Amino acid sequence: MNNIQKLMPVSLVVKAFREAIKLFVADKYLVNDMMSQFEGGMNCGCEEKPKLLFLKGKGEDVCVNLKDLVWIQADGSYVRFHCVNGTSKIMSGSLQAVMLQLCAGGVDYIIRIHNSHAVNLYHITGRCGYILFIGKTNLSVSAKYRKSFSKYYIDISKTV
């Protein structure tokens, strides 16, 4: 996010720019062309690019969009990836190895909460104590991971 976007919303900047250009340029076609270039420049870099996760298989690799990944489950010597649409993908490996690879890839919003579970912070819908609600699934944060998990939330309560 650049300094202009921090100071005011894009819509206000565009409106101010449009008015300033109209004062200096009489040709409305030139104004429209300049505005489309300006608005295009303001929007580039604002949108997050999707990150894809390729699960290695014997034949072809299975693709999972990280935005759609809800939680990950260790299942013996396999790892199961649960997605938004209710489907799950499975691959051979360990949850620890997956977490190390995600961390190395710059993904910091999928965190470990249990020896058997990791969650995407963007898909947590609520909690009750150390039980997390992720859609229709409830996952517990184990004692081992509570301290590290507490860095990711803020409790706001009613003042007395």
How would you describe what is shown here?
- This protein is 31% helix and 29% strand.
- With 160 residues, the chain is α+β, with helices and mostly antiparallel strands.
- It has two domains: 3-43; 52-152, OB fold (Dihydrolipoamide Acetyltransferase, E2P) (Beta Barrel).
- A hairpin with a 2-residue loop joins strand 8 and strand 9.
- Helix 2 packs antiparallel against helix 3.
- The longest helix has 16 residues, at 28-43.
Which secondary structure elements does this structure contain, and how are they paired or packed?
Layout: H1 3-7, H2 10-24, H3 28-43, E1 52-55, E2 62-65, E3 69-75, E4 78-83, E5 88-92, H4 95-104, E6 110-114, E7 117-120, E8 126-128, E9 131-134, E10 137-140, H5 146-149
Antiparallel strand pairs: 1-2, 3-4, 3-7, 4-5, 6-7, 8-9, 9-10
Helix content: 25-40%
Q: Low-confidence parts lasting 5 or more residues at pLDDT below 50?
A: none
- How would you characterize the largest beta sheet? 5 strands, antiparallel
The SSE string, one letter per element, is HHHEEEEEHEEEEEH
Question: What structural keywords apply?
Answer:
single chain; 160 residues; alpha+beta; OB fold (Dihydrolipoamide Acetyltransferase, E2P); five-stranded antiparallel β-sheet; three-stranded antiparallel β-sheet; 5 helices; extended
Brief account:
With 160 residues, this protein is α+β, with helices and mostly antiparallel strands. It has two domains: 3-43; 52-152, OB fold (Dihydrolipoamide Acetyltransferase, E2P) (Beta Barrel).
